[in-house]
Design goal:
The complex is a heterodimer of chains A (492) and B (231).
Chain A (H helix, E strand, L loop, with lengths): L1 H13 L2 H5 L1 H32 L5 H23 L8 H4 L5 H13 L2 H19 L4 H29 L7 H15 L5 H14 L5 H21 L2 H5 L21 H13 L1 H15 L1 H4 L3 H5 L2 H19 L10 H6 L4 H22 L8 H26 L21 H24 L2 H17 L1 H14 L1 H8 L4
Chain B lengths: L1 E10 L2 E11 L4 E5 L6 H8 L7 E6 L2 E2 L10 E4 L11 H11 L4 H9 L2 H4 L15 H11 L7 E5 L7 H16 L4 E5 L3 H7 L2 E6 L2 E7 L4 H10 L1
Parallel strand pairs in B: 3-8, 3-9, 6-7, 7-8
Antiparallel strand pairs in B: 1-2, 1-4, 4-5, 9-10
The chains are: A mainly alpha (492), B alpha/beta (231).
Chain lengths: 492, 231
């Protein structure tokens, strides 16, 4: 049975048009993975000498275990945003003589083979070998490594529980932030010292190996719980068939002010407010707005002026990046309709463009209070907003004409809690890094004003040539019309 | 109204449609029948410029569909559910299509009033999104939406499939009504030989992408078609 599943997965992956058209993105992901492997290897090798250097009085092994609490928290946090439970299209399997148990076990088993679970090994193994060569008991270290693997797997399954619970709520990322932030806070302010708890628990297991049964039991429990959740979802009427919602009607008369793009704007606004997937990009607005608070309160970052533009682009452009990168995939499920209707492509794109611009302006206005941290920040944010309007908006729409991945708004693939993974974040990188690098260089070699002026001018140039650029973009979309229709009518 | 010349479509060297010449005059009710894979949907997709012909071209009202978009204002279609927008209510969907076709709300409401019977009280005012409607009801919405804005060419791919018997009978009346004045060209494909012979004045049988029969509908047509497909 497993053999069949693997075969299906393989075909699904390599036969999808997404894979064939996005080799570049896949290569990028591989490079990113290699980068992290290298970093972890380096960390594993350098850990022992570093700990010796910074904590000469203490046993490096014990110091390292003291950090494990942060490791676990960080791991959990990163997983939540980047690791998704492997998707499997189960609907066709349900009527076949396959036990539900087998399907669930396969999905969970596959998740254990995730990259996220192998990554820690690259640090743990070299560090462990180092410890052994320094005279630690081999059996102790082996048990310790085994323990870390179990903890990683617990995190793996715990993450899916958190994801499945929080996917029911609107603010899907709030629970994880509360959980991780809460634990960190309790520890940080010394209310409950998890650092010591975790550390002594690990020391305890290492000291008396029979105790390893406890983490193994925890692993078993989280697995069983996951199994239970997924098995319940494996019925057609629970998750595969969406619950009937009472339709809400909204008055969008105000869009009429925008003239002939009004029908599309109404459609886009309904798209955003009525589909879970699209709705999440609205919630990202709140996250984006608060992003500056991670940096600005710290004097260290106030020195780094090149960060202002980066944060400005992020804060004012978060909706643009989140929503824009899936143009025109948002409309993929009814793309044929749009293509055969009496539509000017230009207006269709203009509506999306207008929405993005409006979001940039609103976000800029809302971010004005950051002036509290210095007037330079306000100016940088303003320049970033103009850059977003003039350059990034066009770039992201141009990128959209290469979009070949369908978004299924109606039915969500089973087990797919959020629908977005690491790829989504990757696309935002050039949009933010390019202006930051440009500004950073000018700021460093000339001065702040020149850097801002160049960013502003670039943005203004983009705005001035808007009509021309849109013509080029529209042509691009028209040219790839048949390819898009073809790709959007595929299921994977 | 519609003319295909030397039209063919191949996928990786395999020909799925080959029409050396096909003319459909204005106001004709045109029925397309054929087994699975005969090329019916391919023909409609070519007509709507959703796929690119391998050779030849289609003209609609003397407009080359793959070169100009001017055929869009007078053409409407319903091919499958991917022509519906799942997160809209039926009313919103009709108004959206109306907007695109230059019809205001009142125009659309007037048109919808005529189809109250056809909807059977299951579509309008039910506060449901299209994605939550049954397949049959979705089809009703799609078909009626294709009638908005006085189109001159209407393309319906298997409109009878998934509909209940009552609705099938009503749909036949609607189609007959449409072609009565002989200025709307209606193209229909169907697997139901009886329905399609009843509503079309001309039936074309496709087989592996080629026209094998081109009949003016008469009393004998149904028998002839049944005989053809039985063999």
């Amino acid at each position: 049975m497993i053999k069949h599943f693997l075969n299906l997965e393989w075909k699904q992956y390599f036969r999808s048009s997404y894979w064939q058209k996005n080799i570049l993105l896949n290569i990028l992901l591989v490079f990113l993975a290699l980068y992290f492997v290298a970093m972890f290897l380096l960390m594993g090798v350098a850990m022992y000498p570093l700990l010796k250097k910074f904590f000469p009085e203490q046993d490096p092994f014990i110091v390292f275990n003291g950090f494990l609490f942060y490791w676990i928290l960080g791991d959990l946090f990163v997983r939540f945003f980047f690791q998704k439970l492997p998707v499997m299209s189960v609907k066709p399997l349900l009527t076949l003589p396959i036990k539900r148990k087998t399907v669930v076990n396969f999905v969970l088993g596959k998740s254990a083979l995730s990259f996220f679970n192998f990554l820690p090994l690259f640090a743990i193994v070299p560090f462990g070998i180092m410890l052994i060569s320094e005279g630690y008991e081999t059996s102790t270290i082996l048990i310790w490594m085994f323990l870390i693997v179990i903890i990683t797997l617990i995190n793996n399954f715990l993450n899916f529980i958190i994801e499945s619970l929080s996917s029911e709520t609107e603010l899907s990322f709030l629970p994880i932030i509360l959980l991780v932030g809460g634990l960190y806070g309790l520890n940080h302010f010394g209310i409950i010292s998890f650092t010591e708890l975790v550390s002594s628990a690990i020391q305890g297991v290492v000291a008396s190996p029979i105790m390893i049964l406890i983490p193994m039991a925890i692993l078993f429990l989280v697995y069983v719980y996951n199994f239970k959740i997924l098995k319940e979802k494996l019925f057609l009427d629970s998750s595969l068939k969406a619950k009937t919602q009472e339709a809400s009607t909204t008055n969008l008369e105000w869009t009429k002010k925008f003239g002939d793009i009004a029908p599309f704007m109404q459609l886009d606004l309904k798209l955003i407010t009525r589909n879970k997937r699209a709705k999440s990009s609205l919630w990202m607005l709140a996250l984006g707005l608060l992003y500056g608070l991670f940096f600005y309160p710290q004097p260290m970052y106030l020195e780094m002026e090149f960060m202002f533009v980066f944060i400005g682009i992020f804060v004012t452009g978060i909706f643009l990046i989140n929503f824009g990168q899936f143009i025109p995939a948002w409309d993929s499920s009814y793309y044929k309709l749009l293509m055969s209707q009496n539509i000017k492509y230009e207006k269709y794109l203009k509506s999306k463009f207008t929405l993005m611009i409006m979001s940039v302006i609103i976000m800029f206005v809302l971010s004005i209070p950051y002036v509290y941290f210095g007037w330079k920040i306000l100016i940088a944010h303003f320049a970033a907003a103009i850059y977003n309007i003039g350059i990034n908006s066009h770039v992201i729409m141009l990128g959209g004409s290469y979009n070949r991945k369908k978004i299924d708004l109606d039915k969500r693939a089973a087990f797919n809690y959020q629908g977005t993974g690491a790829v989504q974040w990757l696309i935002g990188i050039p949009l933010m890094i390019v202006p930051m690098a440009l500004f950073g260089a000018l700021n460093f070699f000339i001065n702040f004003e020149t850097g801002i002026a160049v960013i502003l001018l670039l943005g203004l140039a983009g705005i001035m040539f808007h009509q021309k650029i849109m013509k080029v973009i529209t042509k691009k979309y028209l040219d790839s019309k048949y390819k898009m229709i073809d790709a959007f009518s595929q299921d994977n | 109204m519609i003319s295909a010349n030397n039209l063919s479509k191949s996928y990786k060297g395999v020909q799925v449609l080959n029409l050396p010449s096909l003319d459909i005059p204005r106001g004709q009710s045109f029925g397309l029948v054929g087994n699975n894979g005969a090329g019916k949907t391919t023909f409609f997709s070519l007509l709507l410029d959703l796929i690119k012909p391998t050779t030849g071209h289609i003209k609609s009202n003397d407009i080359l569909v793959q070169e100009s978009e001017d055929w869009k204002p007078f053409t409407s279609s319903f091919i499958d559910e991917s022509f519906l927008i799942g997160y809209l209510t039926p009313e919103e969907y009709f108004y959206f299509i109306g907007d695109l076709r230059g019809q205001n709300k009142a125009d659309v409401d007037n048109l919808l009033a005529k189809f109250e019977d056809f909807f059977h009280g299951e579509i309008i005012g039910r506060k449901k999104y299209l994605r939550d409607l049954s397949k049959g009801n979705q089809k009703k919405v799609g078909i009626v939406a294709a009638l908005i804005g006085n189109p001159e060419v209407i393309i319906l791919d298997e409109p009878f499939a998934n509909l209940d018997p009552t609705t099938q009978i009503r749909l036949k009346q609607i189609i007959k009504e449409l072609t009565k004045n002989r200025d709307v060209t209606v193209l229909i494909s169907s697997h139901d030989l009886m329905h399609v012979t009843e509503v079309s004045e001309r039936i074309v049988v496709l087989e592996k992408g080629e026209i094998v029969k081109d009949l003016a509908t008469s009393e004998a047509t149904l028998k002839e078609l049944e005989l053809h497909f039985a063999g």
